[in-house]
Amino acid sequence: MILILKWLLMAASVMISAYLIPGVTVNSFFSALFVALFLGIVNILIKPVLILITLPINILTLGLFTFVINAVLVLLASSVIKGFEVSGFWTAMLFSVVLSIVNYILNGLFGLLRRG
Q: Could you give the 3-state DSSP secondary structure of residue 28?
């Protein structure tokens, strides 16, 4: 039940972030659900491998290269999912930062930060 609620909150975060950032469009809530699912799966399976591969540059940039990885994953989601479009790299980077902040706030409002 909590997993479904987190998925719905992530989809809502995608919709809110797309509304706040020009250059990002989400056609429907169903597209946002697919984006949330895709980003969740990619963050579990692919992101740790990318961070491990880019570990030397990540150490040199004091972890800031992780923002680049997040932007690339958002652009990957944009190219795979119909109804979700991101206009460019910098827009994807800003979207990933705003998405994290909005998702954190929504999880805090619904009390999901304490439960995990």
A: coil
Q: What is the mean pLDDT of the chain?
A: 93
3-state class (DSSP) for residue 78: helix
* Domain boundaries along the sequence of the chain: 2-115
Q: Which of residues 102 and 115 earns the better pLDDT score?
A: 102
Structure tokens belonging to residue 28: 């429907």
The residues that bridge with 26 in the sheet, in sequence order, are 84
Q: CA neighbours within 13 Å on the CB side: how many for 100?
A: 11
Q: 115 versus 21: which is more confidently predicted?
A: 21
Which tokens belong to 8?
């719905």
Q: What's the CA gap between 64 and 28, in Å, rounded?
A: 32
At residue 62, the 3 state secondary structure works out as coil
Alpha carbon 116 to chain centroid distance?
18
